[in-house]
Write a structure and sequence with these properties.
Ribosomal Protein S5, domain 2, Alpha-Beta Plaits, 5-stranded antiparallel beta sheet, 5 helices
């Protein structure tokens, strides 16, 4: 998603996108540089992984005074609670110096404008589990899986049913309770 703001004749064009890894994030930055080759600055930030405990984050001021562009962009991403995302802001200088505070507000505002347009998807961490059970209990387990948002990955039939599920992390305690009550064995 893209948004543009103007502050004292300077244009700030912000682009927000999904990025699964550093390479994908830097590709978004490279594309902004190609799309706006005459912009004076291309400042950016990305945050990978769970936004509450990001595995990797980076920010770059791209020639602006230290801490006035990349870090404010990263702060917006963190405040929005978005992981696996990147924001790049391309600035066309309008001839009026904004000062450090003005730059922080402008880059934050541009990042906020682009992030507010970005369609978001909630990602729930899942765990793969293997369960061994009798044939009579299979339907009850399938019903449990549907109620708790677990995805059926594979079913193998033999002397017992081996059912493989991707279970949301927040439903693991309920799965353990179900298994204990129904006599279902959880395999590692």
């Amino acid at each position: 998603m893209q948004a543009e703001i103007e502050v004292k004749k300077s244009r700030f064009i912000a682009r927000a996108a999904a990025a699964a890894d550093r390479q994908a994030a830097l590709q978004v930055v490279a594309r902004a540089k190609r799309d706006f080759p005459d912009a004076r600055h291309h400042c950016w930030a990305y945050l990978l992984g769970d936004p509450a405990s990001a595995s990797r984050a980076a920010a770059h001021d791209a020639g602006e005074p230290s801490g006035t562009a990349g870090r404010p962009i990263l702060n917006v991403i963190q405040h929005k609670g978005v992981g696996d995302g990147v924001v790049v802001v391309s600035r066309y200088f309008g001839g009026v110096k904004l000062g450090a505070g003005g730059l922080v507000r402008a880059y934050s505002g541009a990042a906020e404008a682009a992030m507010s347009r970005l369609p978001l998807a909630q990602v729930r961490p899942v765990h793969s589990v293997a369960l061994s059970l009798g044939f009579a209990k299979e339907q009850r387990l399938r019903h449990w899986a549907e109620q708790y948002g677990a995805a059926l990955v594979q079913v193998d039939y033999g002397e017992q049913v081996m059912l493989y599920l991707d279970v949301p992390e927040d439903a693991l305690d309920e799965l353990d309770a179900f298994c204990a009550a129904e006599g279902v064995t959880r395999r590692q």
